[in-house]
C-alpha cells in the first residue's frame, strides 16, 4: 500500500517532483519495473509513491491517464492554448482545424489565441475578425488581442486557467515562448539559464515542469505535436467537428457523413452561412485523407 498520492510537477534527469493532494512536495524516482513494463512517468501523471523523506521517494504506480501528449510530454491535460500566428508563418485554417480535431479526440479543450495581428492590413484584420467570430460560433473560445500581448487579452487567457492543467501549443515562430513569458515573467530567466547550462554540455535534456498560474497549472515548455495523422475512422470524423454536431441530428439519414447524402442539415448550414465554408472544405479533405483517396479536385491532375 502506497503512503502517498500526488501529481508529478517536474521531470528532470530521472527525478520526479510530486505534489501530494495536500500540497507537500516530494522528490522521487521511478522503480525499475516501470522500464520493464515499457512505462515512463511524465509530468501531469497522478501517482502513488512511498517516501522515507521528502528527498527520497519511489513511485509505485501510475494512475490511468485521461490523455497524454508527446511534445511537450504531459499527461492529463485539460486545456491547450493554440497560439495561432496570422503572419510569419501565415495563417492556415487547415492546420488550425487539424489541431482542433486532434485535441477534440483527446478531450482537451482548445483556446485559440491569435498572434501577430499587428502585422495585418485593415482588410486582413477585418477578415480575421470574421474568422474569429466563425470559430466562436463553432463553439470555441477565441482570444483576439487588439495589440500584441495586451493586458486585456492576457487577463482573458489567465481567467481560463482556473482549476485546469494547460499547455501552450502552436507552430514554430507563432510566439508560444513569448506568450508564456508574458503570462509568467519569472520563466524568462529560468528558461535562459537552463538553455545556457545545457548548451555547454553534450546532452540536452528537456526539462518539463508545471507552473502555478491563476489557480491552475501551466506546462512551462511549449509544444507542437504532429498533426499529420488522424486516429479516427472517416465515418467518425464528423463527431469531432463540434459545429457539425449542432446540426447533424436534423440530417435525414442517421449516420450521415455530410458528403453526398440528400437532406443533409450540415450542408444546408454551410449554405446558410451557419458553418464556415473553410471548415466544411477541410472536413472533406480530412475525410479523403483518412479514406486514402485522392481529393476530388486532384482527380484530373497529370501523373508524373
Structure description:
The protein is an alpha/beta fold and 304 residues long. The protein has ten helices and eleven strands. A five-stranded mixed β-barrel has the order 1-2-3-5-4. β4 and β5 form a beta hairpin. α2 crosses α10. The longest helix has 17 residues. The radius of gyration is 22 Å and the shape is globular. The protein starts with a strand and ends in a 13-residue tail after the last helix.
Secondary structure layout plus pairing:
Elements: E1 4-12, E2 15-20, E3 25-30, H1 33-36, E4 46-53, E5 56-62, E6 79-85, H2 93-105, E7 109-115, H3 122-138, E8 141-143, H4 151-159, E9 165-170, H5 176-183, H6 186-200, E10 208-213, E11 216-219, H7 234-237, H8 242-247, H9 265-271, H10 277-291
Parallel strand pairs: 3-5, 6-7, 6-9, 7-8, 9-11
Antiparallel strand pairs: 1-2, 1-4, 1-10, 2-3, 4-5, 10-11
Helix pairs in contact: 2-10
Radius of gyration, in angstroms, nearest whole number: 22 Å
Largest sheet: 5 strands, mixed, barrel
Number of distinct beta strands: 11
Spatial arrangement of strands, main beta sheet? 1-2-3-5-4
Question: What is the number of helices?
Answer: 10
| Shape verdict | globular
- Compressed to H and E, one letter per element, the order equals EEEHEEEHEHEHEHHEEHHHH
Ranges where pLDDT stays below 50 over 5 or more residues in a row are 189-205, 298-304
What structural category arises from helix and sheet content?
Answer: alpha/beta
| Mean pLDDT across every amino acid position | 87
Give the helix proportion (percent range): 25-40%
Amino- and carboxy-terminal Cα gap: 64 Å
Tell me the fraction of residues in β-strands, as a range.
15-25%
Amino acid at each position: 500500500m502506497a503512503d502517498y498520492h500526488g501529481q508529478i510537477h517536474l521531470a528532470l534527469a530521472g527525478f520526479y517532483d510530486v505534489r501530494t493532494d495536500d500540497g507537500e512536495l516530494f522528490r522521487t524516482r521511478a522503480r525499475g519495473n516501470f522500464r520493464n513494463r515499457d512505462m515512463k512517468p511524465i509530468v501531469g501523471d497522478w501517482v502513488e509513491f512511498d517516501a522515507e523523506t521528502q528527498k527520497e521517494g519511489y513511485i509505485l504506480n501510475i494512475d490511468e491517464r485521461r490523455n497524454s501528449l508527446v511534445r511537450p510530454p504531459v499527461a492529463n491535460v485539460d486545456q491547450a492554448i493554440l497560439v495561432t500566428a496570422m503572419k510569419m508563418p501565415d495563417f492556415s485554417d487547415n492546420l488550425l482545424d487539424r489541431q482542433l480535431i486532434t485535441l477534440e479526440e483527446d478531450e482537451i479543450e482548445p483556446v485559440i489565441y491569435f498572434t501577430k495581428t499587428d502585422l495585418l492590413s485593415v482588410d486582413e484584420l477585418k477578415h480575421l475578425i470574421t474568422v474569429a467570430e466563425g470559430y466562436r460560433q463553432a463553439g470555441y473560445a477565441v482570444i483576439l488581442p487588439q495589440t500584441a500581448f495586451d493586458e486585456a487579452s492576457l487577463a482573458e487567457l489567465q481567467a481560463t486557467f482556473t482549476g485546469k492543467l494547460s499547455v501552450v501549443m502552436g507552430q514554430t515562430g507563432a510566439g508560444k515562448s513569448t506568450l508564456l513569458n508574458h503570462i509568467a515573467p519569472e520563466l524568462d530567466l529560468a528558461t535562459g539559464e537552463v538553455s545556457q547550462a545545457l548548451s555547454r554540455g553534450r546532452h540536452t535534456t528537456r526539462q518539463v515542469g508545471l507552473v502555478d498560474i491563476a489557480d491552475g497549472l501551466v506546462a512551462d515548455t511549449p509544444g507542437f505535436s504532429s498533426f499529420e495523422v488522424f486516429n479516427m475512422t472517416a465515418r467518425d470524423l464528423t463527431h469531432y467537428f463540434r459545429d457539425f454536431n449542432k446540426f447533424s441530428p436534423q440530417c435525414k439519414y442517421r449516420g450521415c457523413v455530410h458528403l453526398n447524402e440528400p437532406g443533409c442539415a450540415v450542408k444546408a448550414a454551410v449554405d446558410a452561412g451557419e458553418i464556415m465554408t473553410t471548415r466544411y472544405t477541410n472536413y472533406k479533405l480530412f475525410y479523403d485523407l483518412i479514406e486514402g483517396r485522392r481529393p476530388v479536385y486532384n482527380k484530373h491532375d497529370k501523373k508524373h
